[in-house]
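1st attempt posting a full record on here, be nice pls
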Amino acid sequence: VLQKEGFINEINESFVRNELVTYRKFFDRIEKNPLTEEQRKASVMDPDNTLVVASAGSGKTSTIVGKVGYLLEKGLAKSSEILLLSFASKVRNELEGRIGDMLSTLEIKHEAPAVHTFHSLGLKIIAEAEGRRPSLAEWAVSGDNFGIARTRMFEGIIQSICKKNPAFMRTWLTY
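the predicted structure (as tokens):
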């Protein structure tokens, strides 16, 4: 069994090395700055699951752009088969813009893949299933995380709990 695993690892490593050579110019041009060796490897590898742990500004978005470009350029996926999800609208907008730039810069003849926040995808799915988009409370859709409507909603919840539970009110006031 160990020999078989070693053989498979050798084949996989050989594949990655060959892809990095074959697509070197592609990864040099995919973003304003060429992708790093690690970003290129992440773009050409195809594990069942990937966990990315990286600090701000470390190149996560460039890696995603590289992966999408590679999948499209090599014909491993169509744009309609790729879904990019983000927690924040700002990141979603950046991803959408950078993938659009990549597609036009490299003259890749594909539509841009879908880019959503988890929230917007959920709303889209509900709208398609129900035939209409659900209505949401103002505080839930406010672009300002500290918006007035949201603040008032939380203040109301806390006041209600304080009225019903004096122990909570003492704890709340203490902390």
